[in-house]
Design goal:
single chain, alpha/beta, Helicase, Ruva Protein, domain 3, Dna Topoisomerase Vi A Subunit, Chain: A, domain 2, 38% helix, binds zinc ion
Length: 229
């Protein structure tokens, strides 16, 4: 006599998966340690909370393997082929970024930004023809970001080499960005021949460069002012 196969009552816990055995306490997320590991990695991404991480993990589980693997390969390729420019710390596929390598860009002006995406914002505005320096963050003591975590020393080394006439501080016009600009301004006092400017306040205070429109970024760079005492 053959027994009819039992109905699948719980589709979230496939047989054999850890935690699927009766009497065992359920894993914190479903029954799979593998899925839990994915949730934990996704949760580390900026702006992703636990709920979103779980939703994304379930999405990855649901889509065809090729589609999920395209995401995995894209992440691998970014880590394999992209690095920071040895001079300005922008993103590049070679040792030096296209902007640093371009002889048409004015090396006497350095625009200091927080993140590579800020370079894209200013480049899109089309108003700037100098070079950049990417800090890779902003001074945020409460979040544990110290000046040593930023590329400030490398910026000072570039200025020390000579040939720099102006440093434009284009950090975001918010608490962290303003504090970072002030700190760099202080350090640049060691180079009295270098003009230090701050982008104009066209960008709403407390906001971010990356969210500003093209014309506002352009106006902010054009309308930069001397950063005094
Ligand atoms: Zn560069």
């Amino acid at each position: 006599m053959t027994q009819p196969s039992p109905p699948m009552k719980d589709r979230s816990a496939p047989a054999g998966a850890p935690g699927a055995e009766a009497g065992k306490a359920a894993a914190p997320f479903g029954a799979s340690k593998v899925l839990q590991a994915l949730v934990e990695e996704l949760e580390k991404l900026p702006g992703i909370g636990k709920k979103t991480a779980e939703r994304l993990a379930y999405h990855v589980l649901r889509v065809p393997a090729e589609e999920a693997m395209r995401l995995a390969y894209a992440i691998r390729d970014v880590k394999k082929s992209l690095r920071h420019c040895r001079t300005c710390f922008h993103i590049t596929e070679s040792d030096e970024c296209e902007i640093c390598a371009d002889p048409g860009r004015d090396p006497s002006t350095i625009c200091v930004v927080e993140q590579p995406k800020d370079v894209y914002s200013i480049e899109t505005s089309g108003s700037y023809k100098g070079r950049y320096h990417v800090l890779l963050g902003a001074f945020a003591p409460l979040e544990g970001v110290t000046p040593q975590d930023l590329t400030i020393e490398q910026l000072l080394a570039r200025v020390r080499q000579g040939g720099v006439r102006e440093v434009i501080l284009a950090t975001n016009p918010n608490f962290e960005g303003d504090g970072t600009a002030l700190m760099i301004r202080e350090k640049l006092r060691a180079f009295p021949a270098v003009r230090v400017t701050r982008i104009a306040r066209g960008i709403p205070s407390g906001s971010q460069l990356e969210h500003a429109s093209r014309s506002i970024v352009s106006d902010a760079v054009e309308g930069r002012r001397e950063m005094g005492d």
